[in-house]
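quick one: glycyl-adenosine-5'-phosphate bound model?
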Amino acid sequence: MSKRVEASQDSESARLQDIVSLCKRRGFIFQGSEIYGGLQAAWDYGPLGVELVGNIKRAWYEAMTRDRDDVVGLDSAILMARQVWQASGHEAGFNDPLVDCKNCQERYRADHLREDQEKLGIGYDVCPNCEAKGTLTEPRQFNLMFKMNFGPVADDNSIVYLRPETAQGIYVNFHNVQQSMRRRVPFGIAQVGKAFRNEIVTVNFIFRTREFEQMEMQFFVEPGTEDEWFEQWREIRWGWYRAVGMNMDHLHWHQHGPDELAHYAKAAWDIYYDFPFGSKEMEGIHNRTDFDLRRHAEFSGKDLTYFDDQANKRYVPYVVETSVGVGRMALALLCEAYSEDVVDGEKRVVMRFAKNIAPVKVAVLPLSKKEPLVALAKEIRRDLRHVGLTQYDETGGNIGKRYRRQDEIGTPYCVTVDFHSLEDQQVTIRDRDTTEQRRVPIADLPAILSADLRG
Ligand code: GAP
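yep, here:
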């Protein structure tokens, strides 16, 4: 996006900046290779970021596999034979059109450039950054795959690519999974894993990065039933966002027009999220027809048909794909969660994560650093380990400050251990969202918090 377009979205980009700085300050996300000046579009997930994305991946994987009878998991290798990408069409056609401004050296994706020009109401021959006229180059095709050599000899025979999508690992294992698991079509294969794209333009924090993770599922169906399954999967995927705490008003459908469709897709609908920098794609749901299996059968010489012994029919299954980026999802949930309010006359930042997504579930806070309070608080923390990740904080600062620290990372519950706890064996549970407090017996704490965190 150009600098002028960004400038026109000041308050929203301030909000994004607040989120980026909270992510660094509180150990969610750091700039990659930061001590060397940072590697553009590479980000490292800190201790709380790892928990956040772990919870997202777990929620997705459970919804896709454990909660259903017809989808199984896979973890295929990132590096695959070069023929995979020749068959899939990525080697020849996974390109983005690249445009440079000869005056200011700003680099654009041609489709994004046009969007920026339209937003600014300037001509198609004007650079949105420096506003020079006639300085933009003709679009050049640029392949997004990272190319490398496999083994010690760097020649044409050793070329491999870092996978730009996880889906192909599923297609090449279609028969392995179907036969080893004795699966009947329709069934799906789900996979979470890294993907790599040498993106031309990478802005907006973790929205578009060169290394990212995808959560993808390929659902194999009998030809002729794909439209019905496509609609079912649209509905299923839409419903999932509610379960991870998304405000559904911030999501929208976008149907791909003929000029937007990927080379493999007959139909595609995206789920868009209202990011602070605009409404953008978060997930794609694609009807990939039998394109991939047919191409792999052709290129490998292997039979990738399915025989339905009940109907006595042989066919190449059609595929409905759902695909969402983990980082993009994390960014959307960070944006959803970030809020500011006033408690006891003081401004607080509170991350209102859904409980299943919050990195830390419970914090145990003794009112004093002295014994025997500390021993009791540590014992309480030990007993709470099974309810989810806990934090223990006896560091200085009044209890209000320690609550704020937990609010800022979205911990749903704080347990305060005070001197009365030693006598009445009770503690105070403080709720992140309402800030209400209730006194409960220590003996009941694990059961109460487990139930509340599920609720
Ligand atoms: N297998 C189909 C496929 O890869 P895609 O629309 O190119 O389709 C699917 O990508 C999802 O992967 C996107 O909706 C987005 O969430 C995520 N994604 C794609 N490129 C990304 C990038 N450079 N950085 C972060 N996430 C990305």
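Residues 291 and 410 are 44 Å apart (CA to CA).
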